[in-house]
Design goal:
The protein is an alpha/beta fold and 205 residues long. It has seven helices and seven strands. A seven-stranded mixed β-sheet has the order 1-7-6-5-2-3-4, sandwiched between helices. Helix 4 links the parallel strand 2 and strand 3. InterPro entries: PLD-like_dom (IPR025202), PLD_domain (IPR051406), PLipase_D/transphosphatidylase (IPR001736).
Length: 205
């Protein structure tokens, strides 16, 4: 009789342990999926597309998140940059948009470690990054002038990458047909991390 009682207790305890372990595994998977949700977003700029009412006259909040408005799209990119917590690696052929430049500087002021790679450095655009203590590397003179550092990608916290056709310039925002793509998919982010690391070493002065 004692044997059967022991067996019953053991079976009951085993079932409770197994059920508890299964519940923990389910909960762990839930939180993993929650914090590692795949994020993919695409933005298009359409040449001389008109600004929305909000950005045209600043008197109404109508269509503030209008995907056809170039300024709304710029502020969406700024929103991505504002989510940066630790590191921001920027590899950009040309960068002179004041709004996007200020978002990068704001990240630096928040304590984000910012690194920038550009093709050329001039006082109208990227020169001031260096004066603020932001780490920056420029294509070296040893490379032929016709050889361009033509990349356009930004890595956020080593977890997300923004890429596409668009230089972060005023002309690109206001006049060009451009695409911008954000993803946190590891298989895409990781090669860009390695590419940034490679060019950072190549442009070491």
């Amino acid at each position: 009789m004692m044997y059967y009682n022991y067996l019953f207790t053991w079976n009951t305890t085993t079932k409770l342990v197994i059920n508890f372990a299964c519940a923990c595994a389910i909960l762990a998977n839930f939180w993993y999926d929650y914090y590692n949700q795949e994020q993919t977003e695409v933005i298009f700029f359409h040449g001389n597309q008109s600004q929305c009412d909000f950005h045209r006259n600043k008197t109404t909040l109508l269509n503030y998140l209008n995907s056809e408005c170039p300024m709304c799209n710029v502020y969406k990119i700024i929103g991505w940059l504002n989510e940066t917590k630790k590191t921001l690696d920027i590899c950009m052929y040309s960068l002179n948009s004041e709004l996007l430049t200020n978002a990068i500087i704001d990240a630096h002021k928040r304590g984000v470690h910012v690194r920038i790679i550009v093709d050329e450095d001039n006082i109208r655009s990227t020169w001031k990054f260096g004066t603020m203590g932001i780490a920056k590397r420029v294509k070296l003179m040893q490379f032929n002038a016709k050889m361009l550092m033509h990349h356009k990608f930004i890595i956020i916290d080593n977890k997300k990458v923004i890429l596409g056709s668009m230089n972060w310039t005023v002309n690109a925002v206001r006049r060009n047909w451009e695409n911008v793509f954000l993803t946190n998919k590891y298989q895409i982010v990781d090669p860009f991390r390695h590419e940034f690391k490679t060019i950072w070493k190549q442009f070491d002065q």
